[in-house]
Amino acid sequence: MPHRVLDNPQNCRFELSIDADAIAAAYYRMEAGVLVLIHTEVPFEYSGAGFATKLANGLFAILR
After folding, report:
1. What does the pLDDT look like over 20-57, one tens digit per residue?
2. How far apart are CA 34 and CA 36, in angstroms?
3. How many angstroms from the chain centroid is the CA of residue 34?
4. Cα 22 from Cα 50, distance rounded (Å)
5. What is the pTM of this model?
6. Which residue from 6, 21, 42, 56 has the fewest beta carbons nearer than 10 Å?
7. Closest by CA position to 25, among listed 1, 33, 10, 64
């Protein structure tokens, strides 16, 4: 299953769906029209599986 990063502006975060119950997320806030990344989370059980890299690559592709 391909993993796709989506912007969830209501929760100020980018989300990467890992499975039906888990997401990786990168939280942000807007400051004077600039998006500032403030925190990322990957569920512990998925640590080391490359989801943080997929999340980062996907969100930077969106921001370009």
Report:
1. 899 999 999 999 999 999 999 999 999 999 999 999 99
2. 6
3. 17
4. 14
5. 0.88
6. 21
7. 10
Single-letter code of the amino acid located at 11: N
Q: What is the DSSP string of 1-64?
A: ----EEEEGGGTEEEEEEETTEEEEEEEEEETTEEEEEEEE--GGGTTSSHHHHHHHHHHHHH-
Q: Which residues pair with 41 in a beta bridge?
A: 25
CA nearest to 35, candidates 14, 58, 17: 14
Confirm if 26 and 14 have CB atoms less than 8 A apart: yes
Count CB-CB contacts under 10 A for residue 27: 15
